[in-house]
Specification:
Blueprint: H1 2-9, E1 14-19, H2 23-29, H3 34-40, E2 59-63, H4 68-77, E3 83-88, H5 92-95, E4 98-101, H6 108-111, H7 121-126, H8 137-140, E5 153-156, E6 165-170, H9 173-182, E7 188-190
Parallel strand pairs: 6-7
Antiparallel strand pairs: 1-2, 1-3, 2-5, 3-6, 4-5
């Protein structure tokens, strides 16, 4: 059911941003939940040290467009850090254990909903529903594959294997060229758009 919904909406990838320093390990081992990394004693610089959503067993993804509000905040806080955005295969949605959050996973509106109630096709469909007090999806001008709220998140309670990473997106030509030399077997592109706000950002300030 989720697969059918995703394909009907034209969802072609999921987005996950990470620090450049984590990239080599990710391409070798895949994306691994924080709880597993901590149990293994791995030293990792996390995007969200507090993890206020309380879900260390999950990896966070976005559909349609990266969570630009969080991404921008992190980049402003850590100006000395380089970042990349991973474009991952949409089959994660229907082959992995996923929970669907209509807004930021740490928000009160989301955390008050039982985790089990955030799973399944009905929960997935809710990402794309109209939101009271906000312009309609048509007025926002967003594509069918975009959740209504730009901070909507997917929590994936599984390891995401390297083969489910389709491409690595860079902000600059220099970064792209450097990474192509280091990881010649991977698709690496300069995609400025995923480092920018979503087109309807003015409605979500």
């Amino acid at each position: 059911m989720i697969e059918e919904i995703a394909k009907n909406k034209g969802i072609e990838c999921l987005w996950h941003f990470t620090r450049l320093e984590n990239l080599e390990a990710i391409l070798e081992n895949g994306l691994v939940p924080r709880s597993v990394l901590e149990d293994n004693g791995d030293v990792v610089d996390y995007n969200d040290e507090l993890r206020l959503d309380g879900q260390k067993d999950a990896i966070c993804f976005s559909i349609g467009f990266p969570n630009y509000r969080m991404f921008y905040s992190l980049r402003e806080t850590h100006k000395d850090i380089e970042w990349v955005v991973l474009a991952c295969e949409p089959e994660i949605l229907w082959t992995k254990d996923c929970a669907f959050c209509t807004e930021n996973a740490a928000s009160n509106n989301v955390t008050k909903i039982a985790l089990q109630d955030r799973k399944g096709a009905d929960a997935f469909e809710k990402l794309f529903e109209e939101i009271d007090g906000k312009p309609s999806r048509e007025e926002l001008g967003i594509s069918a594959f975009c959740p209504t709220n730009p901070q909507a998140e997917i929590l994936v309670f599984d390891r995401v294997e390297p083969e489910l990473i389709g491409a690595i997106c860079c902000e600059t030509t220099n970064q792209r060229d450097n990474l192509r030399e280091v990881f010649p077997e991977w698709e690496i592109e300069e995609v400025n758009a995923v480092f920018s706000p979503r087109k309807d950002f003015k409605h979500w300030k």
